[in-house]
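Question (not urgent): is this output format expected?
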Amino acid sequence: MAFLSDTLARVKPSPTIAMTNKAAELKTQGRDIIGLSAGEPDFDTPQNIKDAAVAAIAAGKTKYTAVDGIPELKAAICAKFRRENGLDYSPEQVSVSSGGKQVLFNALMATLNPGDEVIIPTPYWVSYPDMVLIGGGTPVFVQGEKARGYKISPEALEAAITPKTKWFLFNSPSNPSGAGYSHAELKALTDVLMRHPHVWVMTDDMYEHLAFDGFTFCTPAQVEPALYERTLTVNGVSKAYAMTGWRIGYAAGPQPLIAAMRKMQSQSTSNPCSVSQWAAVEALNGDQSYLTASRVAFQRRRDLVVRMLNDCPGIDCPTPEGAFYVYPSIEALIGKTSAGGTKITDDETFATALLEETGVAVVFGSAFGLSPNFRISYATSDAALEDACARIKAFCRGLK
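Got this back:
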């Protein structure tokens, strides 16, 4: 359609949303569907956070706020970074947006020029490359190695850096693989970045609090303090506190960058929801016991899913360090034919046949830039996960 912009032609719809919508459509037709495609905790937002939102409404805190966050929330974010990450920021170095996605979008739109390159490890969250393309930049992919749990090597990072590289966009624990970089692994990457002072770091720490088996989360500016002045540390309350619908993300970084992001936000959405901001203040400052309880539940679910998937013929599922995803390989299943007659030519045909024949909705790996794999979100009940994995096993056994 000639009326639409050239920029739009560079963007693909979100495959995770597309798979979720397809599953919902089948469900309305009366099919028994188990949705494992959406990255959303099934737990309710903790009561103390909901109470804080109600109190904010009752107190009339429903007006416009400062463009990029109320002072109280910025202070809570500074305290969180100091307490949990050993990073000192002032409120002027903090930006609050309507979700972590907007934080990333603002930063990229405010900094990218045509020809700028952004290094993105694969597998990646589906929105990273498209946001780079919208900003006129060029995504440069560095493939994570299956033998390393889908983490990239410092040598691969070094090889990807060029004079045009502007950002290294990093996510640990990862969506979709759940891979978490240890302090030593991250230090090896930051050592590379120290040799290239023109490269900035954008780190998406959204799954910080979902770390298992004693894995200790760390973030680049914490591991290498010399990167502090060229790092944007991004986080939010969506995943950690089961607040996906509240839409609050935040970041801290150099003041000129934060000012540029504020300018971008002032001409798009303006301030995030006022009530959600007050709820986020309570999330960061209030009782943190929910984090421990949810982590225990998610680790139990991870162990269940990894065990059951590795019992499926032809599936190889690594054990991730964090988040609430697994990213199994189906390399051994390519070329086979399902009981329903579908030839499994790639991970997309696998995911489509799995949904249509068993009612289990997953996301195919090519959506995340690394195949042949699929992603399961285990942010749902143990019973649903057991049922889903049993159906996947039956599906794999039926392949010829």
